Every structure is written in C-alpha cells, then in structure tokens.
Amino acid sequence: MRRLLVLVAVVAASPVPAAHAVVGGTAIPIRSAPWTVFVRQTISGGFLQCTGSVLDALHVVTAAHCVFDQSGNRASITSLSIRAGISNFASATDGDAEQDRGVSSLRVPSQYSWSTSTAADDVAVLALSAPLDLSGPDVQAVALPASGVYQPHTAVALAGFGRQNVTSAPNGALYWYTGTTDDPETCGGFSNTVIPDADAVAFCVESPTSAVCTGDSGAGLVTTTGTPTLIGITSAGRPGCDTGSAGVYTYVGAPEILKFIQGNDAAPTAPRDSGGATVDVTWNGTLSVGNTLTCASSGWDGQPTLAYQFVNATTDDVLQQSAKPTYLLRASDAGSSIYCRVLATNAGGTGALRTDATGTVAGPSAVGITTVAPRSAARGRTVAVRVIVHTGPGLSGKFGVCVAPPVNVGARVCTSEVVDDGSYGGFPFTLGVRIKPSAPLGVAKLAVTAFAGVSRAASTAALRVTG
Hints:
about 40% strand, mainly beta, 6-stranded antiparallel beta barrel, 1 helix, Thrombin, subunit H, single chain, Immunoglobulin-like
C-alpha cells in the first residue's frame, strides 16, 4: 500500500524563509477565493499550518486532522486560530483586509479516527471567538452543495497556503490550482486507506500539472462553473507532492458529511466496505452480442440499497444504470469491454465498487432456420407450420418465429419464448396459419423470419392452396 501524506505543514517559530509555491499552482489575491482562511495550531517550537473555508461569520470548516497534533492528541481550543482576508500568511499584502480570530469550540465527527496517513470523515468545524465581517470582498462565505451522488470527471479547483515539496518551508502565499475528479473507486492508480473502502465520503482529484502539498490540508475544493461551491475538503496527498499525483478529499456532498457540517452530530453513516464487500460480473456461454451480463454485490455495511451501472471500459460511458442487475449486450457493444459498478446507497450517502472489465464482446451468433410446412392446405382451414430455430452460444432474450403468407392467402402469425439460461441449439416452434376461404388456388410463398435475442434470420417455404 502506498501511504499518503497528511498535508499539515510544521513551521518553525523563526521567520519563514522564501520557498516555492504549491506544486503547479498560481499565486492569487485573497479576493479570488475570499472564503479561504489560514488555520494555525500553536505547538512547542512552532505551529502546524492548514487551510480552511468560511462557512458563515462564526464558523470555518477544515480537515479533522488539522485539530490534532503530530502525536494524535486533540488540540486545545486556545492553541487554534484563523486568519481571514489574507493573500500571504507570512507577510502583509497591500489591499488585504486581515481578520484574526480565535476558536471558541470545535466539532469532529465521532467516526473520525486520527491517522498518520489518511482517514475517512476528515472534517472539522471551528466555532470562532467573534464573528467575521463578511461585508467586504476579502472575506466571504463559500456556498455548500445540495446532498447527492458524487460526480466523477468534474472540473474543480482549490486555493491553499501549502508549499511545493515536503523539504521546503512555505513562503506564505495563497495558490490556486485546478484538477478533475476521479472515478469514485479510484485514486490516481495507487491505493490508500480511504479509497475505495469509504468512497461514499471521500474521493480523489488529479491534475497533470499540479498537486496538493503540506499546508493545503483543509483547503476547500470548489466547482469551477457558476457560483464556487464547496464539494471537497483536502485530506491527504502523495508523499513528495509529485506533479500529477492524486489527492484525497472529504466529500462534502455526502449526507453524512454535509449534515455534520450543518450541525448534526448524529448524521447517518454512509455505506462502508469494511473488508467484506464484493462485486462480480458473470455471463453464460460466449461473451457476445445478445448475451446477458449479470452483476452481483454483497457484504456492505450500513444496509444500503443497490443499483448497478454497466460501463464501457474504454469510453467510461454508462450504458445502463438501474436496480436491475442484468444487462443485455447490444450490437453497439461489439468490440468493446464492459465493467459493472455497484452503487450502495443509504441515508448517509452512496458508496461504489466496480469489477474488472470483461474481455472483448464478440458480435452476435448467427441464427439458422429449418421450416417444415405441409405441401398443401385447403381453403378455410388452419394448417400447422413447424419451424426450428438454430442458435449458437451467447444469445439470450426473446426467441421466436413469424410466418407471413401473402395477404390474400392469410394473416401473419408469430410466437416466442424467453430464453435467458444460456441454452442454445435447436428451438422448435409450431404456428397455426389459417388459409382464407377466398385464397387463390395454387402455390403460395410463406415468408419465415426467426429471431433469437439480437440475431435475426429469414427464409421462405412453399404451400399449395387447394379447394
């Protein structure tokens, strides 16, 4: 397992030397991200540095690990403070409107367990000793999202007081960078203790040019279109702060997290995989168009309701999402591979787990027809026409036959059955074709069509109409 670095910067009490910026970031004035605050925890010989976001005049949200010291001890209220309205925590910037506040109380979720790497429910709310003045452009509250299912492949950004690498001291400036949210159960190709086991309340973000680093812990991850909306809280990043490496973020849109931030200390717990959750995708026979994939999942904590996504592994397009655990392979699936993602939902949120991709889906099996029709039939009588449909492996769904005489001879008739157990071979069908009393005498051609799942075949048979 690759460990993640909890992004709290330890800063000596001596003056801060100049250093590089957040990896790949761009220095910005506080007015470009006025919800951002510097969070400080005083310790012996220096202080621990984090970032936070203004919720309202009296509250700031940050990462839970920012209110613990390096040994896992919860910080005292008197050791914590915040600075709002600043573009640089190390030196004054012309035009900033600094506001310093102490902390009167703090809240951390009961489920949170401090760790030297990363942990789920990494969120804390600080109550301030006096209200912030939100009337100016330098200090503003950030918008909270509506609760909902996490959306991957979304453009996001954050502003943080972090640094470029773990060996350089921060220069104090506020930096901005952008990234894209990962699929719910992935985290930049390496594992950690949160994703995917607790991906109902956490997710990862990657950027080809940027990375979070020490001091960015607690920074608010916001949407980049419309009103900036807080969807994530920076929790951890890869050791070394390598450009392009993923960071882990607490998901604010999860009801478990959102309700806590809004003041509910008994928010419902989202589904978890405590080690027993599984998901599998199976099929009978050949993996080909017309066959059916079946997805099954079990072992979730939190008694969730399950839904199933069938996803094109190349394009990440969701082909089907519903409570139905089966998917009929379509002609458009030929040549691609597919995976199943299970979505486990309860009042606390939605967790996800996915299978590996299948092999390449083959085209549909061919269908053959053998028709056994009587040589003759009298006007006004019903004649039995027997058709055998020959199928190969991998077809499922509706199997059947239609027989259509000329319209002046008789009406079209069809019959079918559902075959979803993977069986194949010869399927016999018998249809009753009624010959009209006015049918012309002589040889009539019967059009015979057969279908088996997505495969089709056509044939003809001759029938002599007699008086």
